[in-house]
Write a structure and sequence with these properties.
By secondary structure, the chain is α/β, with parallel strands linked by helices. About 35% of the residues lie in helices and about 25% in strands. The protein folds into two domains: about 60 residues, 2,3-Dihydroxybiphenyl 1,2-Dioxygenase, domain 1 (Roll); about 90 residues, 2,3-Dihydroxybiphenyl 1,2-Dioxygenase, domain 1, CATH 3.10.180.10.
Length: about 150
């Protein structure tokens, strides 16, 4: 298999290999591709991986740059069970909840955990129902599909 020409790169001060290993454990279709120690076997400089089919890499190169919510990993979930599983795993051990399905994991990476049903409601031709669902979402941290459905129905 030929390497991907384009991939998202996340810059870490330290712990990139641990983060990539954790991320690939969360989603089917994910795996570590290559690890380039480049002098530091304990905390490799470059880890290339695939996350649910999307090519990614982590560059671990010191404190020069910091992660920011300006870049996030967005995951479209099938149902509440998948939403809950990912939310729980990503907020564990020092992760932090934010608003509207956003969180920051213990490594400092921002994620959006978004149920497919939310996206369907947001694009509904019933603009009033879509607006009620969006208003309900704005009051949530983790997205609760049942509450969105109730708001959508009016």
């Amino acid at each position: 298999m030929e390497p991907s020409k384009v991939r998202t790169c996340l810059y870490f001060e330290r712990g990139g290999h641990a983060a990539a290993s954790f991320y690939v454990s969360l989603l089917p279709g994910s795996w570590i591709e290559t690890v380039h120690a480049l002098g530091n076997a304990a905390d490799p400089m470059v880890v290339e991986f695939t996350l649910a089919g999307a090519p990614m890499m982590i560059l671990t190169a010191g404190p020069m740059f910091q992660l920011s919510p300006a870049v996030s990993i967005s995951v479209l979930t099938k149902d509440q069970a998948e939403t809950d599983r990912l939310w729980t795993a990503l907020t564990a051990d020092g992760g932090a909840e934010s608003m509207c399905g956003w969180l920051t994991d213990r490594f400092g990476v921002s994620w959006q955990i978004t149920p497919e049903r939310l996206m369907q409601m947001n694009t509904s031709p019933d603009l009033a129902a879509a607006g009620r669902a969006r208003a309900a979402m704005m009051s949530m941290r983790k997205i609760e599909i049942a509450a969105l459905e109730a708001a959508f129905a009016g």
